[in-house]
Design goal:
mainly alpha; 0% strand
Length: 180
């Protein structure tokens, strides 16, 4: 019984091949300008406000939309829907369970995953977006449901715009694979 269980963990395929230098360069350029755009807006446009434009889950978002552009998890529907749905869920559990961050965190991430599956918007950084709504700073908590729009929605939309531009520069590269 244990042998069969652990045998499943050895894997069944080999690692995919390394990408070429051109693909690496485009991923780097996209990530630089995508994160740079939201960081600039955060630092220079929203500096005097209580709003936040950049959150940690955008690092993982950059990996997907600039480095794994063919993945279903990197497509616009998943990107925008996953972040915004997860943000609503995270804020909701933070508000319902402010006395128990452990329970709120667990429920927020687990519920976000289930909701993203149910809506066909599965996007791994969305789990982090839900978690950040619970464990984030006071500035994040003070946003309440506005967190869904800024930073989760607007920040993801800015990064999507950069992805649409950068990922379609080379003739042989196409993004997105699908919208809805």
């Amino acid at each position: 019984m244990f042998r069969e269980y652990f045998a499943k963990m050895k894997g069944t395929t080999i690692s995919p091949p390394r990408v070429g230098i051109g693909e690496m360069a485009l991923s780097w350029v996209g990530a630089f300008f995508g994160i740079g755009a939201v960081a600039f807006l955060n630092s220079h446009v929203l500096e005097e406000t209580d709003l936040v434009m950049i959150i940690g889950s955008f690092g993982a978002l950059a990996v997907l939309i600039y480095g794994a552009i063919k993945s279903p998890l990197a497509q616009p529907r998943n990107l925008l829907g996953g972040h915004m749905l997860s943000a609503v869920i995270g804020v909701t559990f933070f508000k319902l369970l402010p006395f128990s961050p452990c329970l709120a965190s667990s429920l927020a991430v687990a519920t976000a995953i289930a909701a993203m599956h149910a809506t066909k918007t599965l996007h791994p950084p969305g789990g982090a977006t839900a978690l950040i709504a619970v464990i984030g700073s006071e500035k994040i908590h003070n946003l309440g449901y506005l967190y869904t729009l800024v930073p989760a929605g607007l920040g993801a939309a800015v990064m999507l715009t950069v992805a649409l531009i950068v990922n379609n520069i080379p003739k042989g590269r196409k993004y997105p694979e699908f919208w809805v």
